[in-house]
Amino acid sequence: MEFESEDAAKIFYDEYARQVGFVMRVMSCRRSERDGRILARRLGCNKEGYCVSIRGKFGNVRKPRTSTREGCKAMIHVKFDKSGKWIITKFVKEHNHPLVVAPREARQTMSEKDKKIQELTMELRNKKRLCATYQEQLTAFMKIVEEHSERLSKKVQNVVRNLKEFESIEHELLQPRESLQFGPSR
């Protein structure tokens, strides 16, 4: 089977799970290393795997719960194809537990949660790109300010040097006049 999108595959398998009598769980995905988009997804029975006890690591568990995991292997694997469609590449139909789920035990699909995670991930990537752009602009601005500061510093040094020269010349010009005004002493 093939689907137009990953969500269409999730919706299909979730509906199939409800009809057959189990709860669908999003199990894992494989992402592109280049751009982070999802290339493949594994969807399965919520009784897949076994619960690993955390007792002992963090002290006693207050209310130990019975495990809902029973090592069920039922699942589908969907993969994004070059054609742009999502194709089921693996299907395991058999469950190792009774199938009849009471309506109150059934839950909503994870598609809304996955959509939100995907949206937030893309937003985070965009914010990181924006931060990198701002950092480049700030670095360029600081370089311009530094260059301007150096030019201004050189101009101030030239003004100071010119003032000292002017004072020196002025002092030389005024000194002979003072001796002429008072004349030789008698």
Total helical elements: 2
Low-confidence stretches: none
Largest sheet: 5 strands, antiparallel
Q: End-to-end distance, in Å?
A: 125 Å
Mean pLDDT across every amino acid position: 81
Beta content comes to 15-25%
Tell me roughly what share of residues is in helical segments: 40-55%
Summarize the structure.
Keywords: Coiled coil. This is FAR1 domain-containing protein. The chain is of the alpha+beta class and 186 residues long.
Explain what you see.
With 186 residues, this protein is of the alpha+beta class. The chain is built from two helices and five strands, in the order E-H-E-E-E-E-H. The chain has helices spanning 6-20, 111-182, and strands spanning 2-3, 24-31, 38-45, 75-80, 86-92.
Q: Secondary-structure blueprint of this entry?
A:
Blueprint: E1 2-3, H1 6-20, E2 24-31, E3 38-45, E4 75-80, E5 86-92, H2 111-182
Antiparallel strand pairs: 1-5, 2-3, 3-4, 4-5
